[in-house]
Write a structure and sequence with these properties.
Layout: E1 10-13, E2 18-21, H1 27-40, E3 47-50, E4 53-56, E5 60-65, E6 71-73, E7 76-78, H2 85-99, E8 110-116, E9 123-126, E10 139-145, E11 148-154, E12 162-167, E13 171-175, H3 179-182, E14 183-187, E15 196-202
């Protein structure tokens, strides 16, 4: 990988921590890795149960990680695919970057990869707060491909404050302890061209 000096973290919120590193990967590395993962990952679009009905998710995904990092979501248990060498390298680099900063870190043992073929594919409102992630999970989210905004909203309040975080190609978003308890987030459909890959590194406890 190209050895570049990352752009400074952009602090979006101090407590709980929400911060963005736009230059986590150089443009050349981000493009090369995106193309490799797009072709080499075994993508699928499983059917999940939401509000008592079965739906095929409007994107493709892959659950990956250590052999014991099973993940239960919407009534289904997903067993992890073995680490792809590029994804393992990215996981290690995420851990190194966080440990060299004053930001919270975790020993990530799993990752959810999502593939959005176009701006029409989406992710609904949710928090990454499943019991397997522990009481105060740390989630590090790497974006590759078309830049799209991740929408956040407060879980409580009237009205609930909402805001967008645009996620550039090669950027890393850190959602620290307490972020999943405070906010929900979603990727809404937009008239944006091009494919986007998203890797959210987590720790199953």
């Amino acid at each position: 990988m190209t050895d570049t000096t990352p752009i400074e973290w952009q602090r979006l919120n101090d407590s709980p921590v929400l911060t963005l590193l736009p230059g986590f990967l150089s443009p050349a590395d981000a493009t090369r890795i995106q193309h490799a993962l797009d072709q080499e990952i075994v993508w699928s679009s499983p059917t999940i149960r939401l509000y008592g009905r079965l739906h095929t998710i409007p994107r493709a995904q892959c659950w990956m990680g250590d052999s014991d990092a099973g993940y239960r979501y919407s009534g289904q248990t997903f067993q992890p695919q073995p680490w792809h060498p590029l994804v393992r390298m990215l996981r290690d680099r995420v851990k190194d970057v966080l440990r060299s900063s004053d930001l919270p870190s975790a020993d990530f043992n799993s990752v959810l990869l999502n593939r959005y073929a176009s701006g029409e594919q989406r992710m609904g409102w949710h928090s990454d707060d499943e019991p397997e992630l522990g009481d105060h999970p740390i989630v590090a989210s790497l974006s590759l491909g078309s830049e799209r905004p991740l929408r956040f909203r407060e879980k409580t309040g009237s009205p609930r404050h909402a805001f967008n975080v645009w996620l550039p190609h090669g950027s890393l978003l850190l959602m620290g302890p307490g972020a999943q308890q405070r906010w929900q987030h979603a990727l809404a459909p937009r008239a944006i061209q091009g494919c986007r890959l998203n890797l959210t590194f987590r720790r199953i406890v």
